[in-house]
Amino acid sequence: MKPVYTLEDLRDWKNATAGEALPIRLAVFGDPVAHSLSPQMHNAALEACGIPARYCRLHIHPEELPEALSLLPKAGFIGANFTIPHKAAVLGLLDTVDDHARKIGVVNTVVVGEDGRMSGFNTDGPGLLRAVRAEFGVDLRDLRVMVLGAGGGAGRAISAQCAIENCQRLVLVNRTFEKAQQVAAELAPYFKDPRVFGPARRLEAVPWEEKELARQLANTDLVINATSCGMKRTDPSVLPASILQANLLVYDTIYTAQLTPLLADAQSVGARGANGASMLLYQGVGSFELWFEREAPVEVMKAAMEQAKHL
Ligand code: NAP
Asked: Mutate which of 210, 227, 282, 302 to test ligand 1's pocket (most atoms within 8 Å of Cβ)?
């Protein structure tokens, strides 16, 4: 199997994959996509379950997305995952979109039906929910949560999941403030019931200002970084270490580094932290279960991802 396939390959999928022992019937669409660990995770799951299919990477540029998507049924695909920058664009190209994905405006999983119709879902939010439980042994519903990057694709999915779980408190932060305000307006109906534990409001969008963030952190249990800041080695931490406290839980959705700048700062003040590998795992588990309507082999997927990270 090639490390990355292209639209050119998809146009003539039979020939492009002619030498393969098993048909490639699943893929992750991205631009860039070469770094994705999804093939290792899903191929291990397919093998463990005895499913005669393989999963690959497809490097698809934004302008190629409509054609690439339309080719999936003819190429015999079961489904696909979508990562940066396709998660919002793909939503408008599908036959049906699940209510949750439509509400947040972001699709990360597509199921291709036997009739060729394509349906969209989002497993990022449920993935984060399971990741927080696995990493910290707590549930979102029991936490006061701050989401940094709440206006981005992952941030919207995570914020909506916090709202669905009826978390204690939700603080939405985004570099472009208007996006955080918009998400707050959309999620307001979930926070109507009083569940007051103090003077702080249950749902707030706040501007990205150090003094305001420090004030909000005094009423926060879990900080989630859903921005892309921290992906590059040279990126600064999204929060200054001086405003972090030892009692915080810090989840960074970035999984390309074990210790992101934010997690390094969290560690330096004695706070517990985890990177996005567990969210990646559980969003993948969610996708697998949508494609095959059966339980995913979580431990196999986790081990395959661990092994891939160390190669
Ligand atoms: P996206 O839709 O492009 O959103 C990017 C977000 O990051 C926006 O909120 C943007 O703010 C913010 N941002 C970018 N640079 C920033 C900076 N220098 N300072 C502050 N904010 C900044 O991307 P996405 O798909 O949501 O992905 C975001 C992150 O989530 C990525 O790191 C990705 O790896 C991670 N992720 C992880 C998983 C997982 O399974 N672990 C799944 C999905 C995504 P503006 O709105 O102001 O531009």
From this structure: 227
